[in-house]
Write a structure and sequence with these properties.
It contains 15 helices and no strands. It is mostly helical and 348 residues long. The protein has one domain: Orthogonal Bundle (ABC transporter involved in vitamin B12 uptake, BtuC), CATH 1.10.3470. The protein is globular and about 65 Å long. It starts with a helix and ends with a helix.
Amino acid sequence: MTNTPRSQTANRFANKWLFLAVLLLILAAADVCLGQLTISLDRVWDALVHPADQGTTHYIIRSFRVPKALMAIAVGAGISLSGLYMQTLFRNPLAGPYVLGVTSGSGLMVALVMMGAAFLPVYGQQLIHHPLGIAVVSMAGSLAVLFAIFAMARQVTDNSSLLLIGLMFSSLCAAFITVLSYFSTADDLQRFTYWGLGNLGQAPPLALALVWLSTVLGLLAGVWMAKRMNTLWLGDGYAQSMGVSLGFIRRVLLAATGLMTGVITAFVGPIAFVGMAVPILVKLWFKTPSHLVLIGATALTGACVLVGCDVIAQCPGLSFTLPINAVTSLIGAPFVIVVLYRKKKWLG
C-alpha cells in the first residue's frame, strides 16, 4: 500500500520524536552519572529503587544529581518554549527572553530582593527567605519588560532595531543592579553574583516543583493556543479574518512567557541564548509551520540542549565545574552570530 503524504510526514516526525526522546534519556543518564565522582548506572538504579539505603553515594544521587537533571530538563524546556512564544508573538525569529532583556527584568527584581531587602518594609525583607516570594517578584519583572517591549514592537518592525531595544532594556536593568550592588553588603553581593552565574543544583525541592509547574502550565497554554499561533504568525489581518481574538492570544502567550521566564530565572539564574537558539534549530530541522509540532519539538530539544550543557559544565573527571550560564553562552553566542550573518538564507 502506498503511503499518503500525511502518513509520510507523520513517520518523519515520529522518527525525530523518537530520536529526541532517546537522546534526552542518554543525556539525563550521563548528567546523573558523570561529574567529579563518576557513578555507574547500576549504582544509580540501585539508589532509585532502594530509597531506604542512606549510603553516601546514594545520598549524592538522590539529593543532588537526580534533582539537578530534572531541573535541567524543566528549565531547558521552559526557557525554549518562552523563546518560541516570543518569536511567534513578535513575528521575529530573533526574539528570545535573554536577547530581548526579559531575563534582565527578572534579574533586576531578584537583585532588589537579594540586595535591597534592607530598604524594604519588614514583609518585604521576609520575601528573601521564601522561594514563592522570589518567584513572584521575578515574574513581575519579566512581565514588565515583556509588556514594554511588546508595546514598542508594534511600532518597530525591523529585527535589528528590536534587538537594540532589548539591549537597551538589559543595559537599563544592569545599571539599576549596579546601583544596588554599590549599596549592598558583601554577603548579599556575593549571593547575587553566585546566582547570576546560573546553578541547576542548589534549588530546594519547592523550587524544583515550581519550575516544573510553570513549565507544564506554559506547555499546556501553548498547546491550547497552537492553532491560533499558526494564524498569528501569518499576520494580524489574516488572524482576524480567521476569527482569532488577537488580544486574547497575546495575553495568554505573554502570561505563559512571563510565568516560565520569571520562575526559572528566580531559581536557577539567567540562562543565556537557549531561548532564542533552540526554536530556530527546531524550525530549521522540522520544517513545518504547525505550532503543535513545534511546541513539542522545542520542549524536547530545549531539554536535550540544557542537559547536554550541564554535562559539559560538570567537567567530568576534573576537580572543578563551570557555571551553566557560561557554557550556554559559549555555545549559544557563536550560533547567534552565525544566524545573524546568514539570516536571509535561514530565517527568510
